[in-house]
Amino acid sequence: MRSLLKLFFFFSLFLETSFYAQGYAATGTIKGSIYDTDTRLNLIGANVTLVNTLQGAATDLNGNFEIKNVLPGSYSLKFSYIGYHPVTKTDIIIRPERITFVEAELKSFSFQTDSIIVSGGYYNESEIQPNSITNYSYEEIRRAPGSAGDVSRILMGLPSVAKINDQSNSLIVRGGSPIENNFYIDNIEIPNINHFPMVGSSGGPIGLLNVDFIEDVNFYSGGFSSNFGNRLSSIMDIKLREGNRDEYETQIDLSFQAIGGIVEGPIYEGNGSWFLSVRKSYLDILFESVAPSEAMPSYYDSQAKITYNISQNHKISLLNILSIDRQTMTYKKAFDYNKNNYFDININMNILGINWQYIWNKSGYSDFSVSHLYWDDNKDFTDTRTRLNRSILKTIEQEVRFINTNHYKINATHKLDFGLESKYLFNKYNNIYSQAIDPLGQDTPELIVQRKMNGYRLAGFINYNWETDNKMILIPGLRISYSDYNNTLHIEPRLAFTYKLDEVSSLSFSYGIYYQSIPTIFLAQNTLFKNLEDPQASHYVISFNHLLTQDTKLTLELYDKEYKKLLMDPSLPQILTYDQSIFESDFDSHKELISAGKAYSRGIEISLQKKLATNFYGLIAGTYYRSRYKDLKNNWRDRIYDNKFSFTIEGGYKLNEQWEFSGRWIYAGGAPYTPFDLNASKAVNDGVYDKYRINGVRLPDYHSLNFRFDRRFHFSSSTLVFYFSVWNAYGRKNLYAYSWNDLKNEPQEEKQWTLIPIFGLEFEF
Description:
CATH class of the largest domain: Mainly Beta
Mean pLDDT: 89
Distance between the termini: 30 Å
Structural class: mainly beta
Largest sheet: 22 strands, antiparallel, barrel
Low-confidence stretches: 7-15, 17-23
Number of helices: 7
Number of domains: 2
């Protein structure tokens, strides 16, 4: 650790000397556009102010603006227009001899008012979501301590996300499971945004998205509108930026886990743009030298986007995301380091999508998306002690999706959102689940699955937004969905209500019924499983928001999530099968399943957030909640991610335009686990749970400190960013589970990551 720090400071001194030798005269440019939230039409004559400077601009006849000769550094931009709510965007990074593009959307006042506008626009109101929403910009994601540029890991500091395992970025949202989350990128649905994903789930160890292309992220942790469906817990809506429409740019990235590059540029006189990112990991080399006992992961990913304006009102974009993952544990390594299994994992995933946006003059707009998912997942696990196969899983899932969303502004106080979705599935499963001992010590016979599963799902939705006056907003909604596989029709009402107590305070409520299709990897195991009912959750959320200052917001939320029809296995009556993706790290075979599980998650969350208005930003957040389920013996038990409480302190300080320091400390209650029945386990040489203490004991409390610092070097026509981060800075030995070691025939602790230094370089030229 000390050697790395010394190397960094010597490196900084060298570059800083070079930097001053070249001077600091080079400046950058800000370009962008401003448009109306409801119509997507460009706003002419809107004001753009570079906060705390004398520089600014106004938009031209096309809604575009340009600010030249801006010194390199970090800025805030304030956008304002007569009759509209102001918006302030922070963390605008200016680089020498480079163009920074910024888009802003402004929402018009529904009623004219003579009152003073107190809000500075740091926190924007969502058109469709009054509560349980968190927004992140690109720079907030990039610099977040403990995230390593992973868009999912930045959410771990939120009170709505449980703290389970540092090795995984699986989102456990308000008592849900990784099955229950979904992702959208530019209106294209994507089931998983991670390397080494698990079929049927949304989690993984490493994020695959290049955050340099992310413009912003909206995370909905509950009570989301009817625009989104087929998930019980959360939605992450990601918007990617466009490529540079004026000039070609190149960037080289080097991090602790991968090396990559970015190229981007204009198309046909600035009417369009493109970008391409390619990364290749070297974790296999790193693991071999610093963690020889672990399996060697290797991955490759690429992302590309092409955008073109056909006319002023028509824009098309093409998006492709490719991920290739490989991981191998040899028999020799598994035997030498007492690993239960050796394995070979090969996963290929590709998403290709086309999006067309059509602006209907002054009344609204439409988005049409068509996408294709290809997911080839091959896993071969072999028992180290017996050298017999445990499972051979060969899965190919393909989906063709169509999504249409429309926004219609009837007038200043009445608006509609409506749309249609269709999904066509072409799945193929060739899976062998070998004979095994289940968690309660019972024999599970071999199961061979050779099956094709084709089908379709349809959905339609509508939201009506009614602003009755300057104080009250009512948004009723409805979603209707149909699946041909189990011939089910779901009607899902939604409701959101906001009342503005004064200029800086509001009270809101949201309610909704949500259904989610059972993962097809479950359904493929037995033709009778088509008779299973889809799981259901009802959300109730009450939220209070208060602006302490223009850039500081206090939020208090209470929620209740009621589950019904969760999957249960009658042979494992004490265990909630729906949570299996967490405690087993994969889905096992089941001879019989029933839709009989009930659960609830209830809690209170409080957060105090400060945006980067000057040189400091931060978040203080805490939660107390309970997440429990009712087993088939009518006993209420804790779910395996019921931390009960968590507390987060996160923040950063910009010392100047070159140096930035940040940190995050999390403390959370220990998660429940089930101890082994030692006699039964030793008798069968496999882990057998104590059925009388299912989730009845808790792990030690979790706590960890992550810190990070960034150093920017601005040269005459290029920029170098160096960052250094330490995860689990004081080396806390957090546990995430107890497992049974088959080779030693005894239980063992599964520890989370200890102290890990992380570094990276980004060179833009």
